[in-house]
Write a structure and sequence with these properties.
This protein has about 230 residues and is α/β, with parallel strands linked by helices. It folds into 2 domains: about 190 residues, Aldolase class I (TIM Barrel, Alpha-Beta Barrel); about 25 residues. Strands 1-2-3-4-5-6-7-8 form an 8-stranded parallel barrel, surrounded by 5 helices. Helix 9 links the parallel strand 7 and strand 8. Helix 4 runs parallel beside helix 5, helix 6 packs parallel to helix 8 and helix 8 runs parallel beside helix 9. The longest helix is centred in the C-terminal third of the chain and has 23 residues. It is globular. The structure holds erythose-4-phosphate. The site of erythose-4-phosphate (E4P) has 12 residues, from strand 6 and helix 7.
Length: about 230
Amino acid sequence: MKLFVDTADVKELETCLERGFPSGVTTNPLLVARSGCTDFGVHIRSMIDALIKHDAKIPLSVEVNTADPAKMADEAEHFVKEFGDYPYLNIKIPVGWNELKVIAQLARRNVPVNCTCCMSYNQAVMAARAGAKYVSLFWGRIRDIGYDAGSVVRQVRETLDRSELDSEIIVGSIRHLADVNEAIQAGAHILTVPPKFFPQMCAHPKTDEAVAQFMTEFRAWEQAVQANQ
Ligand code: E4P
């Protein structure tokens, strides 16, 4: 199981990279728009610079900024030219009938595709068959419409495991810490998680209690030793 960071915030990304755990990064147009940047190209470049600075040889998914499948191929091409010097670049293409053509074209050229916005079993399977390296299932958004995200992920995983395909499931749209645990149990290969959850994932009140007890007793022992000298 791999953990990706779901962010377009360079500072948040660096905070994670410093801690060594990320296996990848996913962005999307909404995250970019909310990052406070003013130039898309410059911003993606600064994310790549951060990855290089931290020697992180990990996938970075950059999503096309158009909903028009006819324009996606050109935009993907542009990304490959502009950011393709980063060898772990992935292009994110939303799932859809006409979008599959773009996925297939990129896959044939060995450009790794992250097929995004998948909400159903069928969408994920079609994307994988078209050549997507990653199929991104949106856990929170699937649940928003009353479906069981866990069984969607479980079924896609079972199908992939029985196929010759090497596509991996990324579960995104994480809203709660419990989503992370449930998505892992459901069979996600990868979870892409907003950075705000990572500190929580490292914390436990019993850890704090244990460390505090160790320190209290150690200090008391130190004082006792000093008093006896
Ligand atoms: C995943 O790749 C997406 O960036 C993200 O998880 C979307 O989730 P949202 O439902 O929070 O927009």
